Amino acid sequence: MKLLEDKILNESVVLNDEILKVDGFINHQVDPKLMKEIGEEFAEYFKDRGITKVATIESSGISPALMTALALGVPLIIMKKSPSNVMKTDLFHTEVVSFTKGSSYELTVSKSHISENDHVLIIDDFLANGEASTGAIRLVRKGNATIAGVGILIEKSFQAGRNKLNEAMIEVYSLARIESLKGGIIQFKKQEN
Ligand code: 5GP
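^ thats the input. predicted complex w/ guanosine-5'-monophosphate below
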């Protein structure tokens, strides 16, 4: 998506060879117009899949996921990060390793929001090693719901996440695919899909 790629080129900060900071338009300050366009793009791409719910992980995925849910006309589920000693019986829970924090957290969702009738689209800001996305997928499946696909704003294609999801037969649609951040230079992957 050219709009997002331009924004990344003009307004993001390469922290090191692996991490991109997008605090000015996604993670801290949010660009609502960009989020609206992103939501419409995901909705257009996934429109014929019979999606009943959009799901994301708090907190950075919420803005684009909400706009996607609005455009698809379905509810948004926000999966919560809680300390790992919280084990409530009305929640599905799974452990996720955080790429940016280097620690793990318990991801939870209420059993009352996911059922076997749901076909869920997962939206997240970044795809790195795929831990967050695969954790979200595990939770959806614990509720016997099915996965429609994963929509990602920024995929770092040099990390393992995309392959992990593809191997699990999950369709991934990434709006910007970064091939390299080496030397502080952002290089996008040539679009092949
Ligand atoms: P994964 O679980 O795929 O390894 O990492 C994805 C999660 O880690 C995303 O939800 C995102 O919050 C965070 N993340 C991964 N890479 C980056 C990055 O380069 N920049 C930022 N801001 N967050 C990232």
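The chain has a mean pLDDT of 94.
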